Predict the structure.
Amino acid sequence: MLAFALMVAILARPQSSASGTNVTSEGIDIMLALDVSGSMMSEDFSPNRVGAAKQVAENFIDGRPNDRIGLVVFAADAISSCPLTIDHGVLKTIFSGIKIGVVDESRTAIGVGLAKAVGRVKDSKSKSKIIILMTDGVNNAGKITPLDAGMIANTFGIRVYTIGVGTNGVAPFPVRTPMGIRYQNEKVEIDEDLLKQISDETGGKYFRATDNDKLKTIYAEIDKMEKSKVELTEFKKYTEEYFYLALAVGLLLLIEILSRYTLLRSLP
C-alpha cells in the first residue's frame, strides 16, 4: 500500500524550481577629447579648468559601467592617452595623471584632437558611438580643420558633443615671475559657433560651462541622453524530484518479494 501511494505521488510529477535573471547589456563606445592647452590652467573653475574637467569626467566614467571609454588629449597636437576600454580603473588612473604640458601647450588644434578621437572609435562595432570634446579656446593649429574632422565623424555615424569651458568675460590666469606666481586676467575666447556647427552636423549638442556646477550638469545631461541598453530576462528552471520516490518504491517492492518467500511465506 505504501509503494502504491508513492507511485501515485510519482505520477503527480513533483518538481522543484529555481528562478533567476539574465542581464544582457549593450554598451556605448565613448571617446573623451580633452583640451590641455595652457589656457586650461585658468582659475575661473576650481581648482582650474583642467582640474574641474578631470573631476567631473571621472564621476561620469563611474556612472557608465557597461560602456567602453577612451581618452584623447590635445593642444598643438593630439595624443591618444587611452584606447576604448571597459577597465575604467586603468582609465581613471591615466585621467588623474593628465597634466598641462604633455603636449605643446602654446596652441590649440581642435580639429586634430577631434580627428584623433574619431580614429580611435570609428572602427567600433558598437551601435552607438559618441565623442565628448571639451575645449576653452579657438582652433589655431593643426592641418585638419574642426569642420573637416566633424564631417569625418558624421561619415562614421559618430555623434559629437562639444563643451566650451570658460566664464563669461575674463578669467584669472597664473603666470610665473621671478617674484612667484602672479595672476593676470585674460579674455575668454571660445569659438562657440564652430562648436555648435560640429555638434549639429553630427547629431550631438553644444554646451557652455561657466563654472564647476554647470560642468557637472552638462555631463549629467549627456549621461541621460546616452543611456546604455540593459535587458533583464527572468527565467525559471524546473527539476524533477521523483527519483528518490521511485527508489523508495523499488525498495518496498523488493522487501515485499523477499518477505513473501522468507518471513511471510505461506505454510503448506
